[in-house]
Amino acid sequence: MNSTTGAIDASGAPDTAEAADAIRASASAPPPAARTGLILLIVVAALVVAGSVFYGLWLSFAAGVDKSGHFGFEASYAAPMIGDEVDAPVLPGTGSEALIDYSTVTVSAPLEQLREPQLLLALATAIPFLIVIVGGLGVIALAWRLLGSKPFSGAARGVLAALGVLAILNSALVPWLEARSSARAIEILALPTDGTMVPSNQHGWVVAPHFGFLQDAYWPYLTLGVLLMLVAILWRKAARLQQETEGLV
Length: 249
Fold this sequence. Notes:
Elements: H1 2-28, H2 32-61, E1 70-78, E2 81-82, E3 85-86, E4 97-101, E5 104-110, H3 115-147, H4 154-189, E6 205-207, H5 213-216, H6 219-245
Antiparallel strand pairs: 1-5, 1-6, 2-3, 4-5
């Protein structure tokens, strides 16, 4: 009697396991309307990623460069006082063009002279697009996992961690690159940076940009980056919990 029961149980075990898998799949599968929404979300995210790659490359290569092939940048401008009036002459001996507007000067010079500053500005332009690209890939990965009813995947956790790192980089590295780009251009063009470098009461001088973390960092991006890193850590624990509960149904 016992042997017969054991045989029935042994032969029926595969059917029971298959039934349990079917129950888990049907219970956790999203409804048809949700599946349609997730598929539409994947398509939109893919288009956003493709557009970000295209425009990111385009704008990065063209960062700071005008139609004439000149690289331009802005800096603060100081001018000597003559009586009660401010003298605002052109910048001396730069071989470049300068447009002075109150306390700001816009300088442009041939790109061949300023390849390094343009590269720094290109990197500063590309990093925000990287955030959009990685975020779009994260949306695709997460939506795909939701279609399979297993959202807590290692790929999604990796995307969250990458977004956190990029957001932190964007908070400090981007403004540093922007400031360094202008400062390096000033060095290459040998622009005067204080009153001792110009003839008295004849020329003005520029003030090279300086990056200060407390003042110039993008604190909202820094906060977001730290938050995403914490979510990535919690995501790992959620993934373990998901694996532990998969066999309970």
